[in-house]
Design brief:
This protein is α+β, with helices and mostly antiparallel strands. The protein has helices spanning 2-13, 20-40, 164-168, 177-180, 184-189, 192-196, 209-212, 217-220, 259-265, 297-329; strands spanning 50-52, 55-57, 76-79, 82-87, 90-98, 103-107, 138-140, 144-149, 204-208, 224-229, 243-244, 246-250, 269-272, 279-283, 286-288.
Length: 330
Amino acid sequence: MNLNWTIHLSWCSGHHNLSPILITTMLVFQIMCLKSMAGNIFVPVTTCRSYCGNLTVDYPFALRPGCGHAAFRNLLFCVNGILMLHIPSGSYRVLNIDYAYHGMAVHDPSMSDCYTLNRSPDSRGNGFVVESWRAPYLQPDRDNVFLLLGCRSDSPIFQGFPAMHLACRSNVLGISCEDYYRCPAWEESGIRSSAYGRSNPPECCALEFSAIGVVNMSHLQCEGYSSAYSVAPLRAPGPGAWAYGIRLTYTLPDDNQGFCGSCRATGGVCGHDEATNDDLCICGDSNSTSNCDSLDVRSAAIVTKPLALLDNLCIYACVNLFAWWIYHQL
């Protein structure tokens, strides 16, 4: 391409009687032809699978627009090699994604654990709150236990419980406040004695997500929280060995069942329409709402591209012949 332009520029510069407008027109035509040819070369199906650090981001999640399922759009972001999940309540580091069991574990930097208590009198902790439209597809797993800390006596979690401390001392999936009180963080905070002294309301309340519905510190009127999840069938020997974080479970709509498998089986990549949020099977330069075999999408992609390329080659040849003819007429 560079050689061709050099030849044309050289003979154009040697014939000053050629109109500058004519020279510019021919060059513009050549550039347009070359761009059109480059855009019509057959492009293989690209992948929506991404990597962030040591984690694989695959369907139904994605890092690129139009990839993954629409229910999980604008959810995950790769920041300096760290995969982050962003929802209205805050940003959480993704620890792992279990595609086989539709699970994910995340960590909240404002969350307490066995060695640090993060409590704020004005309930500034993140908690875990997803958008209402996303909630049916992404929620804390039933094996996740939330340990709510420093909740006020008029907190919604105490409504209907005459003996407030009794409801919060129960063992939930092998995780309890009784065990949590043995963590070094309580010793360092200086409030372990009040915790063991059965303060009213209690310093810690262990509940499943289904019991509270939303982990919003302001709404629950709690100073902070911790979260741990069961790694059954193994049971951690003590609170220092608990898996701290928020274990999530994700689901897909019923009408999506089988879509991605069918799309991938025909060579497509699973994604969604950014305008309508409908499922979309990405098949090369064409898309389908089911799979790449429907409506002869693949054959159209294979036939149309070479034909378009042939047309552009003919146009490019004609432009060069025209330039050659003008040159010999002068």
